[in-house]
Amino acid sequence: MTTDHIRATEPNERGDGEFDADGIVPVAGAARPSGLVLPRYRHDDPDTHPPMLFPDYGSTNLRAPKQPLALLPQRLTEVTGPLLGEGRLGELDHDLTRQHAGEPQGQRIIVHGRVLDGNGRPVPHTLVEIWQPNAAGRYRHANDNWPAPLDPNFTGVGRTLTDADGHYRFVTVQPGAYPWRNHPNAWRPAHIHFSLFGQAFTQRLVTQMYFPGDPLFFQDPVFNSVRDPLARERLISRYDHSVTEPEWALGFEFDIVLRGREATPFEDGEDDD
Amino acid sequence: MTEHPDLTPTFGTGAAVSTDPTPVAGVALDPTPSLGSTPSQTVGPYLHIGLLWPDGPDVVPAGTPGAISIRGQVFDGAGAVVPDALVETWQADPDGRFDHPDDPRGARPAAVPGFRGFGRSATDADGRYEIRTVKPGALPDADGETEAPHLNLSIFARGLLHRLVTRLYFPDEEAANGTDPVLAAVDPARRATLVARPEPDGFRFDIHLQGPDETVFFAV
Ligand SMILES: [Fe+2]
């Protein structure tokens, strides 16, 4: 999503950078005539997210909107969001290697990290959903028919909540790369799909986690649709020897950053609930 | 748009900066440190294994008095149905409240038992999605205006590298829609794409990703 797709100025924009008599920058989030004080989430730098239209990824051609996005000022519906809890979790949802009678094939890995907001603060008790193919690169999905074996002991679906420090942890197996038909000899680099809610509608994020040094990056239009190279790097997990368990599993760290809030002079102790 | 400097550190080298800003009266706070967000990626064609819940479409439980269905189809730029999209909804309760700490009127459970506020439905082979909910109330706006009853929708699909966001308004709220600040800012010629159509048991809201009837999508 890029700013060049956005038109119109925010109708209730007040922050013009000038100081009022009290020396307070009148940023959005300050008290307004009705007295409603709302947090406001910063917009990401334009090249952080992929553009909607990215012709190298053929499926965007008929699905990316042609009209520019309109700016939706953040009001109550945008700064709130579903706070989904334990009710969404099954006992073994965090361990994809223990969901069947036997163990799945493949390299056992531990994927962990923190969910943070753009201010560096942990996002606690938030739902993290993941899904992935098996070690051979095949999803347990009716539409995935390429000739790689299914694994009767692997579903490839996980869910957990972050703890009070925003930390999450999954045990799974290293997903395989898989072919697709986007371009000749096209292969997706190994990845795990992630879904995050954060604490507000504005923070909702669906992304993919990749593995360090994958030789398939160069030809993958999904990965390369992120134009800012630093932002692209943030999609790659880090091998984490401190989490690797001896004679058991390799550790990978993947921190996820959701949009942060603007500071507001009238707010104190955000989210102390 | 708010521009801000990208002070993004590389992961694993101190991204987890902890801050605890202490507000000081009369001093504008600096929102630093500012970490760059993790980029969005497409949900892909196999979202169903990961994101479908048995009760996903149930914003309210079956049998809830006054429950309505909201359903529609998703179309691509060739007019073909999109059979692999996911539609998520988020809305206020019938009193216009959110059970959320950032509702400045106070978090309060809805009067409707089992109200979740959130729904999700994948489209089927005909591009159809459907959720069961109750109509939300109108909302006060920070500027003293009133927002007409609405649902926020997120659309995910293969070929969408980032979710699309739109809003659903109700056709039986003509007066409220007429003063809604979001509708007012939308090109009048395209406003109708945000208003659902009545059906016997609820409302129909089709989503056109492209084409002459392209739905208005928002950057939030
Ligand atoms: Fe995938």
From TrEMBL, chain A:
Residues 111-139 form the Intradiol ring-cleavage dioxygenases domain. Residues 1-17 have a biased composition (Basic and acidic residues). The keyword Hydrolase does not apply. Residues 1-20 are annotated as: Disordered. PROSITE patterns: INTRADIOL_DIOXYGENAS. Belongs to the intradiol ring-cleavage dioxygenase family. This is Protocatechuate 3,4-dioxygenase subunit beta. It comes from Plantactinospora endophytica. The gene is pcaH.
From TrEMBL, chain B:
Residues 97-121 are annotated as: Disordered. InterPro entries: Intradiol_dOase_C, Intradiol_dOase_core, Intradiol_RC_Dioxygenase, Protocat_dOase_a. Residues 97-106 have a biased composition (Basic and acidic residues). Residues 67-197 form the Intradiol ring-cleavage dioxygenases domain. Pfam families: Dioxygenase_C. The keyword Plastid does not apply. Keywords: Dioxygenase, Oxidoreductase. Belongs to the intradiol ring-cleavage dioxygenase family. This is Protocatechuate 3,4-dioxygenase subunit alpha.
